[in-house]
Amino acid sequence: MRMEEYNYMIKQSVGFLGMGCYIPEKVVTNYDLEKLVDTNNDWIVERTGIKERHIAAPEDATSDLAVRAANLAIADAGLTPEDIDLVIVATETPDTKFPSTACLVQDKIGAKHAAAFDLSAGCSGFVYGAAVASQLIASGLYKHVLVVGAETLSRIMNWKDRNTCVLFGDGAGAAVLGNVDEGYGILAIDLGADGSGGPHLSMPAGGSRKPASHETVDACEHFIHMSGNDVFKFAIKIMARTALHVLEKAGLKKDDIDLLVPHQANIRIIDSAAKRLKLSTDKIMVNVEKYGNTSAASIPIALCEAREEGRLKKDQNVLLVGFGAGLTWASVLVKWHK
Ligand code: UT7
Q1: 3-state secondary structure of 227
Q2: Probe target for ligand 1 pocket from 47, 200, 295, with the most ligand atoms within 8 Å of CB
Q3: What is the pLDDT along the chain (338 residues), one digit of tens a residue?
Q4: Range(s) of the chain covered by CATH 3.40.47.10
Q5: Ligand 1 pocket test: which of 202, 223, 229 has the largest number of ligand atoms within 8 Å of its C-beta?
């Protein structure tokens, strides 16, 4: 998209009014996984940076995690659920194929006046959602949009596949977007997709291509299938590229980044992006060691924790960068307003 078109679309300044996250209590360490599959703590830490992950309680589904994060975000924004005009839930692990998890959340939190839909963009989902929300607010259609990234990836993990089961975790993060003072909030957006890479990260069955059957269950096709190395190569390339695009759209340079909040998939991917962007470690939010890859929840959880750690300050340029299933990528550059 050309810069002039982009500026034309942004009619109002839109930022993050409130945030909240929910992390399930149960912790599964690398040592616990050593008992399940042929792996070891050293391999996992060295190759991914992950030490432990949290797993949702058996009675909880994705909407339950999402609701807890959403209620915190709405209260944090100083609003009530009735003030929310739209609920977007970014997830690859909806409670059910339909109704959408966003509709379940809308009902459970009592957002009586809100429209609701789910968004599928893999681990880029929350940033895609924030981008969509910002435009619906900037256009004047809506005032307050709740964007949630929530996942119970443990439910679609093959606990016998060491290539994937050591990587993922459960959690939810939410934000309420709305108008902020002029010059603050989302400065630029870069979204992208390369569907040709879709097979590198997918759940092969359960859709119209391969409906659920005894055969698909026996073939473990309702679990995450991933070619880790292909996704790794894509991630290394795309993270720096999308970050540079969004900076360019905002008329800023690498040096102007105050805090990078990247998708938390693998410390080696984050380090590589940081190196390409010439960012020192104090300018990068990392918590992959505690939660593993929580897909669409990873960036809002990291953003919440960055604030808890006092790392979000007024006037800072905060860069959110995600990549994931699709394959997709998404960057949003935000001038923090409070
Ligand atoms: O959010 C987006 C979703 N996904 C990602 O971001 C994942 C991106 N990819 C990655 O993070 C990395 O590719 C992995 C962490 C998944 C794998 O690291 P890698 O350095 O790319 O390893 P590899 O796949 O090339 O495998 C190296 C070896 C293989 O053994 P051989 O064939 O060399 O004998 C694997 O079988 O490591 C083996 N291996 C393991 N060993 C111990 C794979 N998983 C494990 C494991 N424990 N859990």
Answers
A1: coil
A2: 47
A3: 455 555 545 568 999 999 999 999 999 999 999 999 999 999 999 999 999 999 999 999 999 999 999 999 999 999 999 999 999 999 999 999 999 999 999 999 999 999 999 999 999 999 999 999 999 999 999 999 999 999 999 999 999 999 999 999 999 999 999 999 999 999 999 999 999 999 999 999 999 999 999 999 999 999 999 999 999 999 999 999 999 999 999 999 999 999 999 999 999 999 999 999 999 999 999 999 999 999 999 999 999 999 999 999 999 999 999 999 999 999 999 999 99
A4: 3-183, 186-335
A5: 229
The two beta strands, 115-119 and 86-90, are parallel
Q: 186-335 domain in CATH 3.40.47.10? A: yes
Domain 3-183 top-level CATH class: alpha beta
Determine which residue's CA is closest to atom 6 belonging to ligand 1: 265
Query: Which is nearest to 273 in space by CA: 302, 234, 303, 307?
Result: 234
Q: Give me ligand 1 centre to Cα 46, in Å.
A: 11
Stated pTM of the model? 0.95
Chain length of the chain? 338
Ligand 1 centroid to Cα of residue 27, in Å, is 22
**Are 151 and 90 a contacting pair, CB within 8 Å?**
no
